[in-house]
Design brief:
Number of helices: 8
Strand order of the largest sheet: 6-7-8-3-9-10
CATH superfamily of the largest domain: P-loop containing nucleotide triphosphate hydrolases
Number of domains: 2
Shape: elongated
Strand content: 35-45%
Distance between the termini: 31 Å
CATH architecture of the largest domain: 3-Layer(aba) Sandwich
Keywords: ATP-binding, Nucleotide-binding, Transport
Order of helices and strands: EEEHEEEHHHEHEHEEHHEEEEEEEEEE
Family: Belongs to the ABC transporter superfamily.
Protein name: Sn-glycerol-3-phosphate ABC transporter ATP-binding protein UgpC
Oligomer: single chain
GO molecular function: ABC-type transporter activity; ATP binding; ATP hydrolysis activity
Helix content: 10-25%
CATH topology of the largest domain: Rossmann fold
Largest sheet: 6 strands, mixed
Length: 359
């Protein structure tokens, strides 16, 4: 598959501060890539570099086989949707959609055709004669997306477009953006700090921290096989449980607070004996039982129950560690109950405590 975007050894410094550090990223034709990470990780900065809104310190940016490292934003063949709607308040929706095309001296008939097409795709036809003040937040964001859509480009860049909306609108527009990508099959690069958006929208996710891509992979791979402790802790709500301990018996078992958990069936590399290791377990991969299973379970005490509608999140204490477990509502154990947590080691992750990398 052809590459739509290629970032090669990109560096960006603000004075003595290194913001993006020798970053490489290849985006395939028609791919939906999500840049995910906490505030300050460099995801929006990278997007602005792709758009030409920031001059890079070193490296190259290629879009559709063309070196655009020093090209103007208007010459890069991209459409961009910002976090703020940035609509012209004095213009109608039709005027906002057509303004950039008029400045580019696109023929009137072509402008009308593109505006009609964008309105049909985004279902904003009845809104074309309204001013932005008469629109809801979700409608304004549709118009902002439409303004990028009428440019008829191959690459779309989204900078946290849903962050100003309430939860219900975010969910609805997330579906619309997915439908838009399925219909157009354009290359899309999407920035967010919301992991639900990332997991539901992306073909691949680039998890970023400190100006470096920590892991680039399919959503399910990142969720099931995180490359390091940061990725494991950032992806998942609630977060993955981390149990400190060590691997023993030639890497055949994990010792957590004196309880040994057999590692046969672990889907990872050669474990070997490590004096400091961390066992990562997602809340849905633990089962609360009444009886101990040697090598398969750990003792715990129920502390807190958080009803979440379809299920409950139960917090337990084992040794000095707090552990969360998802359970059906009807199977919630009582506060203070002594129980055992059965471990599904097939879905576990083991990390070296020093390097924080997955074993």
């Amino acid at each position: 598959m052809a590459q739509s975007i290629s970032v090669k050894n990109l560096k960006l410094n603000f004075g003595a501060t290194s913001v993006l550090k020798d970053l490489n990223l290849d985006v395939q034709e028609g791919e939906f890539i999500v840049l995910l990470g906490p505030s300050g990780c460099g995801k929006s900065t990278l997007l602005n570099c792709l758009a030409g809104l920031l001059d890079i310190t070193d490296g190259q940016i290629w879009i559709k086989g063309k070196n655009v490292t020093w090209s103007e934003p208007s010459d890069r063949g991209i459409g961009m949707v910002f976090q703020s709607y940035a609509l012209y308040p004095q213009m109608s929706v039709r005027g906002n959609l057509s303004f950039g095309l008029k400045n580019a001296r696109v023929p009137a008939a072509e402008i009308e055709k593109r505006v009609a097409r964008a309105a049909e795709i985004l279902q904003i036809g009845p809104l074309l004669d309204r001013k932005p003040a008469a629109l809801s937040g979700g409608q304004r964001q549709r118009v902002a997306i439409g303004r990028a859509l009428v440019r008829d480009v191959d690459v779309f860049l989204f900078d946290e477009p849903l962050s100003n909306l309430d939860a219900k609108l975010r969910s609805e527009l997330r579906v619309e953006i997915k439908r838009l990508h399925n219909r157009l099959n354009n290359t899309m690069v999407y920035v967010t700090h919301d992991q639900i958006e990332a997991l539901t929208l992306a073909d691949r996710i680039a998890v970023m921290k400190g100006g470096v891509i920590q892991q680039l992979d399919a959503p399910q791979t990142i969720y099931n096989r995180p490359s390091n402790l940061f990725v494991a802790g950032f992806i998942g709500s609630p977060s993955m449980n981390f149990l400190p301990g060590k691997t023993v018996d030639g890497g055949k078992a994990f010792d957590f607070a004196g309880t040994r958990i057999a590692l046969d069936g672990y889907d990872g590399g050669a474990v070997l004996d490590r004096p400091e290791a961390i066992l990562g377990l997602r809340p849905e991969h633990l089962v609360i039982t009444d009886t101990a299973e040697p090598g398969r379970s750990i003792p715990a005490v129920v502390e807190i129950d958080e009803p979440m509608g379809a299920d409950s999140l139960v917090w337990l204490k084992s040794g000095s560690s707090n552990i969360s477990v998802r359970v059906p509502v009807e199977k919630r154990p009582a506060h203070g109950t002594q129980v055992h947590l059965k471990v599904d080691i097939r879905h576990a992750s083991i990390f070296d405590a020093k390097t924080e990398m997955r074993i």
